[in-house]
Predict the 3D structure of the following.
Amino acid sequence: MMKPTDDFLKVPKLSADGSNWVTYRDRLRWAMDARGILNHLEGTPAQPAHPDEPSDPQTLEAYEGRLEKWRMAQATVKQCIASTVPNSIFNCIKGKTQAKDIWEGITAIFQTRSQMVAVDLRRKLQDERCGESGDVRAHFDKLSDMFE
């Protein structure tokens, strides 16, 4: 069985123009799922609530354990995003504290951009031609990537 390593879970850099947004979004979600923390990208679970009985050592210890686990998952998601977005996007989201809010901020930026990219890609698809002696498979692969 293959052990998940950092190389295995790498997410490609997001292009500043958003041209690879769809692929980036899907690969980031898959990487977070492989780490078992996709739910933090989606906003669940919420930060653990402080116990009503903080004087009970077992209750307090259990709470601190849950809080630490939650913080580490949040930090992992945030760092994965921060290390794969351009500085201009990072500067737009760095004030947000929770992974879900950061992800929603990036999604809002690139869902709009992706509509513009889609229009441009549609034009490029229409203009794309395979030459007389061109490799038809390579041409179809290119068209398939553009379509996706």
Remarks:
- The chain has six helices and no strands.
